[in-house]
Amino acid sequence: MKKITLLLIACAFGLFQIQLSKAQLTGATLNLYGSGGPLINFLSSSSGPLRSSIFSNTSSDLVMSSFGNFTFNNPSGSSTYLNILTASNYVGVGLANPTAPFQIANALGSTTKKLVLFDDKVGVGTDLHNFYGFGVNSSNMRYQTSYANTNHIFYAGNGATPGTSTGSNELMRITGSGALVVGGTSSSGSIQLTGTANPTSQLSIYGTAPGITLYGSGYSKIYNNNSSVGFGLPTSQWNDLIVTNLGDIVFGNATSPSFTEKVRLTTAGNFGIATTSPQSKLHVNDVVQVTGSTTPSNTKAGLTAGENSTYTWLQSNTAKPLALNPTPSSTQYVAIGFTPGAYTVPSGYSLAVKGNIIAEGLLVKLVGSWPDFVFDKNYKLMPLNNLETYIAANKHLPEIPSASEMEKEGVNTAEMDKMLLQKIEELTLYVIQQQKEIEALKQVSSAATK
Q1: Over 189-253, what HEC string results?
Q2: What torsion do the CA atoms of 393, 394, 395, 399 make, to the nearest 10 degrees?
Q3: Which residues pair with 230 in a beta bridge?
Q4: What span, in angstroms and rounded, lies between the C-alpha atoms of 355 and 343?
Q5: How far is CA 440 from the centre of its chain?
Q6: For residue 87, what pLDDT is reported?
Q7: I want to staple 130 with a disulfide (CB 3.0 to 4.6 A). Which of 121, 356, 397, 433 is the partner?
């Protein structure tokens, strides 16, 4: 094999050497050598002017210089592969006139690949799934990762001013399971929108700031797809929150997979606490506690209750009496001072008081007859000798309970007053009878002395 070496001298542009080698078919077929000047010049004609040049500098870089644009076309020149506009420093891929610093052709056939950052199937141009990058078609902008469970994360430097960051903070991520997290790397973020990977929580909000702010005109703000369940603001009542539902509204504690109900508002308007089926407008299936520092007021309509440092009160502001157990059964009564379950009140009584009662007055109205029947002319008054015999045998008056009976059964005040009045009336009759006998004896004694 022979080498042919041509040595040309260009006065204006320096010295360069062309080496043609027919022996090295697998290597370079054209080697260019030079120092400090262009290796190749492109002229508009044999006599100029100069249009562009190719240089090799001391840093082993290939430098291309042009008075116009750099354009790479197909062999026929009908399609532009790459165009660099030297006047604007714009680069166009697949188009002749880019309008931005970097622009990709508007049409790439049926593919949605536009920019590939990493390809898991190199060389398979029709594969649209196994790559990291971006794509676009007539209606969609596509951001692609190669496989599931890969996170899409957005970062910002932690510095307060440009050039001062020493690390990066995560701003937002879209997880591979379809969750959108803002302000954190997981459920600690301030907003988490969870997709099908966690269907028990479609929207989770974390943080100390208000979770959802509703504002604007219109009645409803948040509704489900059939517009039957949701809440919002009415246009005429900006301070109100409207909640609507086809069924009951329930509040409770959820610990997956269980739910513990605490409060329920039914469609009938009944509000229940610690009950799943409230039977009245307020139904509490537990202890009701009233605390605070208040004083009774008769200016508030209906029934009010309160508590202060001195007493606990119950106030009715109507012209009607305050009734307790107005329709009691045989086993219902009002108990004061009793420990529940420690004492059983006999049936037939409506009020039980453990301890003394003090009152400025007491009115007892009997349903039965008052003992004025003693003064009826047909009333049979027990003879005094029979009364003496009864007392000697029983140690108490007839029809009056004994001491042991009173200790065991208690004293019915109304009945006792009735029986005592009967005995007083009987005693009055005895006194009248004795007075008559005394008067008769006086008359006999007076006649005997005359």
Answers
A1: CCEEECCCCCCCCCEEECCCCCCCCCCCCCCCCEECCCCCCEEECCCCCCCCCEEECCCCEEEEE
A2: -130
A3: 223, 244
A4: 13
A5: 98
A6: 75
A7: 121
pTM: 0.43
Burial of 156-195, coded b for 16+ CB within 10 Å and e otherwise, reads eeeeeeeeeeeeeebebbbbeeebebbebeeeebebbebe
Give the residue among 400, 436, 403 at the shortest CA–CA distance from 420. Answer: 400
CA-based end-to-end distance of the chain: 200
341, two tokens: 């379950």
Position 57 scores a pLDDT of 64
- Joined tokens for residue 396: 């108490």
60, 74 Cβ separation under 8 angstroms: no
Nearest to 153 by CA among 162, 143, 163: 143
Cβ–Cβ under 8 Å, residues 18 and 32: yes
Q: Which two tokens stand for residue 195?
A: 């997709």
Distance CA 74, CA 289 (A): 88
Residue with tokens 């004795």: 434
pLDDT digits (tens, 9 = 90+) for 98-112: 888 888 877 655 556
**Residue 231 in tokens:** 């809440």
User: Which H helix or E strand runs over 96?
Assistant: none
Among residues 256, 282, 257, 251, the alpha carbon closest in space to that of 268 is found at: 282
